Structures are given as C-alpha cells and as structure tokens.
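Rotation project, supervised by the postdoc (A.L.). Task for the rotation student: set up a whole-complex structure prediction and record inputs and outputs verbatim in this book. Inputs entered:
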Amino acid sequence: MSHVLILGGDGYLGWPTAMHFSARGYEVTVVDNYFRRNACTELDTGMLYQIPTLIERAQIWHEKTGNEIKVIIDDLAQPEFMRSLFTGNFKYQFAVNKKYTGIPETVIHYAEQPSAPYSLYNYKYADITLINNLRVTNNLIWAIRDYSPETHIIKLGTMGVYGTPNIDIEEGWLEVEHKGRKDKFLFPRQAGSLYHTTKIMDTDLEWFAVRMWDLKVTDLMQGPVYGVETDESNIDNRLKTIFNYDEIFGTIVNRFVVQSIVGYPLTVYGQGGQTRGYLNIKDTLQCIAASEKTPADKGELRIMNQIMETFTANELAELTKKVGDKLGYEVKIDHIENPRKEAEEHYYNPTYQGLQDIGVKPHYLTEAVMKRMFEIVGKYKNNIRKDVIFKGVKWQ
Amino acid sequence: MSHVLILGGDGYLGWPTAMHFSARGYEVTVVDNYFRRNACTELDTGMLYQIPTLIERAQIWHEKTGNEIKVIIDDLAQPEFMRSLFTGNFKYQFAVNKKYTGIPETVIHYAEQPSAPYSLYNYKYADITLINNLRVTNNLIWAIRDYSPETHIIKLGTMGVYGTPNIDIEEGWLEVEHKGRKDKFLFPRQAGSLYHTTKIMDTDLEWFAVRMWDLKVTDLMQGPVYGVETDESNIDNRLKTIFNYDEIFGTIVNRFVVQSIVGYPLTVYGQGGQTRGYLNIKDTLQCIAASEKTPADKGELRIMNQIMETFTANELAELTKKVGDKLGYEVKIDHIENPRKEAEEHYYNPTYQGLQDIGVKPHYLTEAVMKRMFEIVGKYKNNIRKDVIFKGVKWQ
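Outputs recorded:
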C-alpha cells in the first residue's frame, strides 16, 4: 500500500484529499496546526457550519469506512518537526495502528496560508503568511533531500502567480528567444498579492531543489476552487469540509452562492472584467490523484495549470443570479469600488491541458452544479452571518 | 542634511558605506544584529584581523572626523523593531545627539545572510538564511508603506539571481514576444544556491510593493566584491572593514590573495571556466552613492547590474599567481572537485551600463590593484589560519 502524507490535512482541500486517498486503499497521514481554523476564529470570519476536530474527523472516518487516517497536530514551519515525519520521531494524535507508517511515497503539500486578503490585512499577517509558507516548503525540500529523495512532492501553487500578462500563459515554462539566442525559463510571474507572491517563491525553492538535488516535484497552479461536497463527504454529514463564505477565506463562487441566499448583493469588484480559471473541488481531487499516479521524474519540476474553464467576475455573478433567481432568491449584483489593485479588463489566455492529458475529466460549472450548491448551502441559511461577509481589506 | 539608514551596517559593505556617507555630510544611522560576526565565530571561519564592535567603530569615527554615525543593535527580522525605526520608538546604542534623527530619505538594505555555502551548509542554516533575508525585506517594505512611501529603498541583490542563461543578461528586465504578442517581465532568474534564491525572492517582494504601493526601489545586482581599503578606512587602521578569507564568507579574489600569501594552492572549482562579474569595494560605494543621488521614481523598480568587468575563475587564479609570483610567493593553482553544482563552461554576456550611466567610474582589477591587496593582507600574514580556509561544503 502506497503511503501519502498530507501537509495541511485540515483545510478546505486537505481533508477531502485525505478521505479520497484513504477510500482508495492508500495509507494516509495528515498533519495540520489548525492555522486556518484559528485564523477564522481570530478574524471572526464565520463558517457555514461547525466542523469536528481533525481527530474527530479521523475517528468518524474510521467508524464509517473502517479506513485509517493517521493524524498529527503540529507546526510544519519548525524544521525539526518536519524532519521527524521522515524518521518516526513523533507521536500520532490519532491512529488505529500506532506504529510509524514509514517514509511516504508521496507528500501533498497544502500547508500554506491560502488567502490573498489575509496576506494584506496588515504587516503582522503579511509576516505570518511569508514565514509560514516559505518555511514549510523549505523544510520539506530539505527533509526530502536528507531522508527520501525518491519521494514525490505534489504542491499546490496558484494561477495567480502569472498575474494577467499580455501574452498567452503556458504551463509553467516559456521558451525565450533574445538577440538570436534561445533558452527555456520558468514562465514569467508577477502576482497580485503577497500570498500569491509566496507561491512564486515556493516554485523558486522547488526549482532550486530539483536542479541541485534531483528531487521529483509537481507544482499545480490552481485557480479558485468552488463546491462543498465530494464522494467521501457524502458518507456522513460530519465529514464535510470547512466552508467559508467571507471575503477573506471564502472563494468567489462559494461566496456568491451564500450572498444570494441571504439577500446580500453580489460584490463584483470594479468593472468585473477580471478573468480567472476555476475548478470544482471534485476536480482538485482528480488532479491530485492523477498527479500521484504519474509522478514527476527525478530532477523534474512538472508544472500544470489546474483549472477547467475561465470566467469573468461578471459572468460568475450573472450565472449565480440566473440560478438564484430561478430558485426564488431575487439576487442583486453590486459593482463596488475595487479594494484590490488589479486590471479590470485584460487579456487572459491560459493553457490548461496537462492534467487532462493524464486523465482528468473536468466537471464544469453548469446551472445544475450551481443549483446543487444552492441546495446544500441553503440548508445552513440560519448559520450565515451577513455582517462578516465583507470586511473591506484594501490592497493599498 | 539628508538622512541615510543603513540596515546591516556592520558588514563587509555596510560599515564602509556608513563612513562614506558620513564623510560626505549625510546623517547616518546604522543597524545590525552582529549576525555575520556571530556566524564567523560559530563556524570558526577566521578573520584577517579583529574588528572593534560597531559602537567602538562609531566612537573612533567620531573622534577622528567629528562626524556622527548613530548605532542601533537589534534584529530587523522582528517587524516591531523595523517599524520602530520609522516612529522613533527605540534607543540608540551609540549617538552623540541622542535625539531621534527622524525618518530616513534613503534606506540601504544590506541586512542579509550573504553566503551561498552558509545557506547550503545544513537545513538549519538554510532556514536561518531564508527567514532572515525575506523577513527583513518584507518588514522593510511594510514599514515604508505604512510610514514613509517617499523613502527610497536601495537593496543589494546579486548577479547570481540570473544564473548562467544561454541568452544575454539584461539589467533586470526582458521584453518577451510570444505567439505574436508582447509584454515586459523581470529577467528570468534561476540561482545556483539557496542564498541566491532568497535574492530572487527579495526582488519578487519589491516588485510587488512597487506595483501595489508605488514605492521607490533600486535593486543592485552585484557581483562578488574584492578589496580591503576605502578612502575612509585609511583614516584609522581600526576603521577597516571585516575581512574573511575562508570558503564560506571570503569572496574569491580576497581568498585567493590570502591563499597565495600562506602557500595554500588556489582552489579553482572544477575546470574553472565559471565566468562572473566582479567589482572593487570602492566601486560598491560609488554605485550606492550614485543610486542615492538619483533615486528611483515612485512606482519604479530600478534594477542595475553592479559589476565592472568579468573574469573566469581560471583568469582570476592566473592573475593572482602572476602578481603573487612577482612578489615572491610561488603561487600554486589546484583544480579541485567542484563542491557546487554549476556549469564550468557556459555562455555569459551580461549588460552593466546603468550604473556607469549615472556616473560611476570603474576601478579595474589590474596587477597594481592586486599588488596593493597583497601588501595589505601580507601585513596580517601571521593571523591567517590555513586550516580554516577550505571546509568542503557540498551543494548536494
């Protein structure tokens, strides 16, 4: 049985990923320091529903499926703790079989502060974002170098690293011709937030590690994810992933659905021509699974753009309104002053073929898919706090 | 009188820079946490001569010239301390006039762990390098954003960020044409050490700050510096800058001169075709001074390549041998197994016109210049510890 170690296993994507691999017969270990939960509490962001602790989740998972997800609660930014995961010099907080599972064949690295507005909230949160994200990545490449260079790292990046360039966005790399000579480089990156900038830096660290130490790394440049349910979360209601609907941790589609349900006008920033690539949470799981099955080679930094389709903010608002109106919600759309500094009309033509080439079959954001989101979120309508949706974090 | 704040004012370049500005009528404040000295002690790297503390140096400088350099000893990686420099909420460890000088017009940022071998010595030093370098830069851009967006930041980068690409190296930026469309990006970067990678990341942070907050930033991509004396250090022997000659903190020319003097064969790594750009420490001071006089515009990230000429490692070894032999040292050259992972023969054609365009007049590494280095270093021959020169830190 292959062993998958998931860093950041308590998050919006981490926990569904853990269940996904566990359901398919993998040995799964999850690590988290509850950063996301604690930040939600500290910032009073609201959550659509309460979620059990990671230990309770693993217990419920075991009861319902007989499968084991081992849990460790600790801080991966600490080098010694990261290294202990490869030596067995730690204790599980939850495990059916307490014995060390051993060195993982695959590490899936989600253990980062994932919010752009959080990273620009103030200088303290900027510092936390920078330090957490880069230390975890650096600790990981060193631990892999020192203990297990054959282990495949799958890290989540973001499409946001590319910004909105005036040229087509390729999957990670660009052949450049200059004054009659040629070379191939990482695709140019220029991000729109400090969080996104840490993802540029993560890739720089990985690229260094791959060139120097011949590691195997897959970096998945993901767009904003939407959705609530996965096949595994449907087994028991308490297995659902964390769902934020505020400006700081809530991604745009999830947030628009919540806003529609409570009669809060959809907050489109500025003109709304901002185009981005999006994907369903079920496709995140497919992408990770396909990447695990076809690891990067030794000395390869494989970069794939993890989106399934692109929309402007206006298109997302219109779709949400169309579906919401049919369900009787009378959705309003507001164009508010853009708190971000970004182009509101721009060229955007990203390539995203790599993941489909290794077997991913996209789910698209159809009216039916959005209707299903309305149905699930609607059940928790009474939990939604309108006052925490918009905080007005400014980029400048 | 313009006020210059120097972060990392105790280092090889920081202290000469402080004296340079002080001698020219600027108000000068220096900050340092003695990282470099402490690391030299911890790693037992040896130093050509002992240097006074930063406070003693400032006292001697004041006695000899009547000029004041204010001194603060603290850790710039701490956000609150960095911010205190812009509010006056701190105490000087040395100052003639204890009153807060006020917000600086220019910040010169040298406060980074500057050694590639140190950054790859082990995972702990890698972590220290990453965290120190990035936190200081991030704390600085936030403090400037919050308290003084008009202040000009001059940061030292490194030519090492570019690596050895197969295309000509431009000064920071590259116009790219791709599938019939054009855009301008940061010149592609791919560094050969973790330290150099942190400098890539510094530039990413600055570029973010410039785009979002309209800061004024000059990033100087410097090559390895050589030399001992500056006009100001000649005022009193105790004002000389720190001089390392080991593999970790000693730059190649300085190290080769020391090795020649004690009969330690020059350690050329591999074939010795590695080409880099170099400059005299006096030219570092010229470059910083010229940059201060012509600040970057608001919202401009100005990047200049701070080298005056290029040499292969073999050429430097041959020059050192030629000068050393004339002085009777019988210099030997050893081609040792390369501890680094780098191309030993490669294309290298960097542009470096920007600093000369703003008035810098290069000193070149002539036989006379090197002979003078031999003379100065020769006075301290008895202090040189042959056993600490080469530690064999491996990149892999």
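Student's summary: DSSP finds twelve helices and 14 strands in chain B.
Supervisor addendum: Residues 79 and 139 of chain B are 5 Å apart (CA to CA).
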